[in-house]
């Protein structure tokens, strides 16, 4: 006996006969029966309803969405509808079937009339192939079977994995270049003239790092920190930042070509989503009137204001993290533990990064709720429009959640804190943080390294272990129930569908945003990989390693741990492409600002070519950056300290040093400060214009659509026109 095929399963609690929920359920199922659906009921601990759509629905769909050029020929012939199309069409009808009480399935699920709806994982050859050859950790370095993924999960999921595979493939190139830059930095670990000067500055006494119980300290005490800074902050980093700006453009242009090739093979290049939506609406209800496009400036203004309020809240959280670091530095410097006392600043940055990661985890959930609420206020016309609106909002919120703290460290830390004798304070009490004499870039490096490592280890473990543990617990419960049944009385022969439906029901739940979550995770990672890559050259390598596992992790979740996703048709990755292009522009701006403002690259170059021994003397055998550290430190008179600060005992002398370009008499900015400021500005303008020009040239040089795709369309048009002309000539004869 051939096994029955069912398109969808609806699950409900067993309600009392005559109860409101039972009546609502019956009304909904009656509406489906009127549309010709076959319904099968199986009772267990829950009620299961298998539904199968009549074949005429699929014939209507095929006829309405046929190629218009071929409608003249063979109107009676029809091919089998792919399983993905069946599921998508049945899901659309289920979601848009209205009961006499004017309730849809979504409303009934809110009222607990139905608990779950899902298509089935069928025991078919393609599923076994994907489970064995794709959803396995051992296949981590193997190519993905995109065509098979499309046949089982639909085009949208297939395009996600095609994009993720392509991104990971090209990320390998960026990872190698980043690793070379980092290794080159390690080779100059001990040879940098600037770090040598810091290590030898055993007579340079610095101003204390906090107000109470902080002693004056020797610049040479921070020798290791200086070496690490110059391992990251060197000429190679500038070239790598420029390379990544070009890489981001080339990656997107090559992806557009790859996508054009893939969707042409699927015959979807010129697919019209709106036409498909209207066709399904008419198949479901012939009396359906299309919803009109509408726009309300009042509603848009309200939503814009609410988005700005949310962004202000997220920036406020970044300020709270700044206050935490300021207070943590003050507490650590007063600690009795020698390690905490000596490394107070570094420990404050590291604990601040962990706290930042925790806020990211919490605010991700909050951001989702707020973005959904704002989408409901907008009342979008279609699901695609709703998804696009949601994407823009959630990405904006997530961007500020992830990057506000990094932006502060990169561009404000050590630049708005005042100077000895006139520090900027929080609540008039705590001093803002300062940069190390060798620069702020190491703080940014530490922050990015910790957040990326935590996101890629803890988050991925939770993403995999959570559904895996739930799956195992449900399996164990099922075995216990089966054992009890075997020990009890002999039951009548079990319906073959029952076990399959139960097994599918026990898998993890999926929702309309399951794939969206995967995209969002990867796009945020892409932001980390490109925007501040000048401070963290290892970001592409970490992302590459993570993605090798991410592909298989997502595959295992979809094939083994979760219910089957409702397939969705698509011919591109949607609004995510515009988001990625925006990130590419932000990457140019971000890296330009990091090199110009955060890095010490510009001050060192200004010193080399304006104030160094190479410029002022005749000596050619001296390193041109000799004397840079002494030149970059200003002098402060001890008697000018604020009266309520209590620095530790002085070592010797009446003057101390601090990192800034200020005059010793009135603490105003020196000429050197304005030289460096002008050079930073000039570099920023030059870097961004050159990088953007290179991006535009790369975008022009690599066509979006390959010539082979254009030729395919031209040949197809030619063939269809010839066929049509022959048909007309045959009619005349």
From TrEMBL:
Residues 149-714 form the Anoctamin transmembrane domain. It is a multi-pass membrane protein. The keyword Transmembrane helix applies. It is found in: Cell membrane; Membrane. GO terms for cellular component: plasma membrane. The keyword Manganese does not apply. InterPro entries: Anoct_dimer, Anoctamin, Anoctamin_TM. GO terms for molecular function: chloride channel activity; protein dimerization activity. Residues 83-146 form the Anoctamin dimerisation domain. It holds the Pfam family Anoct_dimer. The chain crosses the membrane at residues 157-186, 237-255, 301-324, 344-363, 390-413, 523-549, 570-597. Keywords: Cell membrane, Glycoprotein, Membrane, Transmembrane, Transmembrane helix. PANTHER family: ANOCTAMIN, ANOCTAMIN-9. Belongs to the anoctamin family. This is Anoctamin. It comes from Nyctibius bracteatus (Rufous potoo). The lineage of its organism: Eukaryota, Metazoa, Chordata, Craniata, Vertebrata. The gene is Ano9.
